[in-house]
Amino acid sequence: MFNLIPLPYRILGAAALVAILFFSGVGFGYRWHKSASDAATIAAMEEAGKRYRAEVERGNALSGRLARAESAIQIKTVEVIKYVPKVTTGGPCLNTATVRLLQPGAAPGLRPYSGELAPEDAAPAASDTDIAHWIAGANLGYETCTERLNTLIDSGPGRCSITAQGDSP
């Protein structure tokens, strides 16, 4: 039966059949590769989403821990300040010249320390109560800063912490 079809047409038909099979194979191969590539992309996106959610949860945990630590430090400082008048006498501790030397311009109306005492400098400028309040405020700032730095360090790739004097790591 094929003998009835002239040879050039048979060759052309065979070439067309080969071309159709080749290009359909290329098309199927492209679709298969595209679907495999899409699956890999989807898997990578799902993994990135999982890592993102884990980091958000870790960040929320660190933020919560920092908020609780700062709250505890604030409460401790309020308690310390509440008891300062009970353990201090309010007696003179530092005179005006000493306060001016340590904190120039901190008290309103004080001149910078010139190295000489004026008669009005004989009155005490800071009592032991004032010093205790200042120390409580300084401890609050120090402990809050330490907690914030530790939280920042814990959120980074290296895990280390800063400890207060006397604390063990």
Task: Give descriptors for this structure.
mainly alpha, 3 helices, disordered C terminus
Number of strands: 2
- Our count of helices gives 3
Q: What value does the average pLDDT take?
A: 77
The SSE order reads HEHEH
Q: Strand fraction band? A: under 5%
What share of residues is helical? 55-70%
Principal-axis shape equals: rod-shaped
How would a crystallographer describe the biggest sheet?
2 strands, antiparallel
Helix- and strand-based class? Answer: mainly alpha
Number of domains: 1
Distance between the termini: 94 Å
- Strands of the biggest beta sheet: in what spatial order? 1-2
* Computed CA radius of gyration, to the nearest angstrom: 40 Å
Query: Which residues form runs of ≥5 with pLDDT under 50?
Result: 165-169
